[in-house]
Amino acid sequence: MKWRDTTRFFEVKALSEPSADRVEFELGPSEVDAARRHARGSRYRILLITSALAPEDRRVFELPNPFSAQGRDRFRIVSRGLRYQCSPLGKE
């Protein structure tokens, strides 16, 4: 996506569950590589869609890069793989 003469990168994650204080999603190896490559800026973001199968309850959250300064304290790895947990509502 082009925005103010710069390119933004969005990783889209969709969940069938509704938004909650904590949700979990996975990032694949290429997604982690892209996030790490763009960790110093704010060009890489995650769009998290909750209740993706229920239009009346669907919500979209723009989240920071998990490897950026803004995202580092907002996400945590919850398994040995590449599964992340975050609070899309901004609560800790």
Structure report:
The chain is mainly β. Helix content is about 10%, strand content about 35%. The protein has a three-stranded mixed β-sheet with strand order 3-5-6, with helices on one face. The longest helix is centred in the middle third of the chain and has 9 residues, at about 30-35. The model has no long low-confidence stretch (mean pLDDT about 85).
Which structural traits does this protein have?
92 residues, mainly beta, 3-stranded antiparallel sheet, 1 helix, 8 strands, 10% helix, 37% strand, globular
> How many H/I helical runs?
1
* Beta-strand fraction estimate: 35-45%
Strand arrangement across the biggest beta sheet: 3-5-6
- The run of helices and strands is EEEEHEEEE
Shape: globular
The total strand number stands at: 8
Q: Work out the radius of gyration.
A: 13 Å
Helix content: under 10%
> Low-confidence parts, pLDDT < 50 over ≥5 residues?
none
- Summing up helix and strand content along with how strands pair, one would put the structural category as mainly beta
Main beta-sheet annotation: 3 strands, mixed
User: What is the first-to-last residue Cα distance?
Assistant: 29 Å
